[in-house]
Amino acid sequence: MTTALITGGSSGLGYEFALQLAVLKFDLVLVARREDKLKSAAERSRELGAPRVSIIAADLARPGAAEEVHRRAIAEAGEIGYLVNNAGFGTHGRFHSMPLEREIEEIDLNVAALVAMTRICVPAMLARRGGVVINVASTAAFQPVPWMATYGETKAFVLSFSEALAEELRGTGVTVTALCPGPTHTEFQAVAHANRTGMPESAYMDAATVVRQAIAAARAGKAVKINGAMNLIMAESTRIAPRALVRRIVASMFRPD
Fold it and tell me: For residue 221, which of 167, 178, 177, 157 has the smallest C-alpha distance?
């Protein structure tokens, strides 16, 4: 059975990936910082049918953490055939007043750790001529996001990186999918201190639906999956709308109180 490694596997979309892949009988390696939540996620995954679940408590934003996590995962669960790069967070506010250390940590986790985990896991997938990588991006990747400038930049990188790698790996048996959800009910808003934005409640999706669509898109070999018809329309419209207009609309939605 294929082993799936899920970063940020203790909550939000990562937790939902663990549950849904457990139902599909994947062996799991769940990675996150909070060991107590990892244990809960592992227990629930076993209940749903995961034959084997390993947990690794680690801060992937730390230099060298990706290599350490991979070594432990291989030792405990064997080669990784399904990688979900979900770990990440956002910050909300005026960039010039945000703590620099937190902004750099955001880049290290959302970008550097994702690149490292992908680079480390893909060679073995290529050797077996089969594997799946799902990189969690966002609809924030399609336009600048004033008041969440660093977060939007990291997700733009994830989208572009994933599309480029998907094309490089075409025909190898290894697929790469950039998952681009819009607003989703998870812990993300609370961590980012972005609960009060101009985003209407009707725009939010539930995590289970987002993950179900992601797994189906990866199975179909899609390079990009934008969740929800409205999100798709809005993301695609940014390609033709004047960029100055797009910036101002997004700024009005995310402007802090």
Answer: 177
